[in-house]
Write a structure and sequence with these properties.
Layout (H helix, E strand, L loop, with lengths): L2 H9 L20 E3 L2 H4 L12 H6 L17 H15 L3 E3 L4 H4 L10 H16 L4 H4 L5 E6 L1 H9 L15 H23 L1 H4 L2 E5 L13
Parallel strand pairs: 1-2, 3-4
Helix pairs in contact: 4-6, 8-9
């Protein structure tokens, strides 16, 4: 059976449908929404931002279907207040967003801070807090920090399959493992800095996001 037909059959199977309510989850289960900076911010040449590896990757001919990119995306850089309003109206209490390295450190080296980038994230965080919804600059208000989002995807898709930036796929027996290794080192370094310099004063938590893929059978016999 073709995948399209299988999905159609699944959608029409009423036995697979179940009403879900808040009471089905424990009180300490957090509901929220999440975004990735490159996927939503846009304004890739504004506010002092420097180029990221995704800017270079998406602007390379043949890398992205339909030649799409994140130059504008959903323009959250200019429309973040509208996004915050939508989050509040939907009743979500948590919003996980990422901080663009190239917006904070345009030179890519981490040697010079871009104040315009800091101001953007300060404004976004303040707008979120009004709706009740990097350590030194935001830690007084942000209590849950994530160092790296889905390191598996960066290592495998970025340095093995070539589907993500920087699009490498020539050294599959070496490069994805090096990428994973250095992401772990970077995570450990960031956690060490937070725990030694900021945790006692700010009282937050720091970790990383691990992705997993969940699969369910289409039916009891398929």
């Amino acid at each position: 059976m073709a995948k399209k037909e299988l999905l159609k059959e699944y959608e029409g199977d009423e036995s697979n449908k179940k009403e879900v309510s808040r009471s089905d989850f424990p009180p300490n289960f957090f509901f929220g929404v999440a975004t990735s900076a490159y996927q939503v911010e846009g304004a890739y040449k504004e506010g002092g931002s420097g180029p990221s590896i995704w800017d270079a990757f998406s602007h390379t001919e043949g890398k992205i279907v339909y030649k799409s990119n994140g130059d504008v995306a959903v323009d959250q850089y200019h429309r973040y207040k509208e996004d915050v309003e939508l989050i509040a109206k939907l009743g979500f209490e948590y919003y996980r967003f990422s901080i663009s390295w190239s917006r904070i450190f345009p030179d890519g080296l981490g040697t010079k801070i871009n104040d315009e980038g800091i101001n953007y994230y300060n404004n976004l965080i303040n707008a979120l807090l009004e709706k009740d919804t990097c350590f030194a600059s935001f830690g007084d208000r942000v209590k849950i920090w994530i160092t790296i989002n889905e390191p598996l995807q960066t290592a495998v898709n970025g340095y093995d399959m070539g589907g993500f930036a920087p699009g490498r796929c020539q050294g599959s027996s070496i490069e994805p493992y090096l990428a994973a290794h250095h992401q772990i080192l970077a995570h450990a370094a960031a956690v060490s800095i937070y725990r030694s310099k900021y945790k006692d004063k700010q009282g937050g938590q720091v970790g990383l996001v691990l992705d997993c893929e969940w699969a369910e059978a289409n039916s009891e016999n398929k």
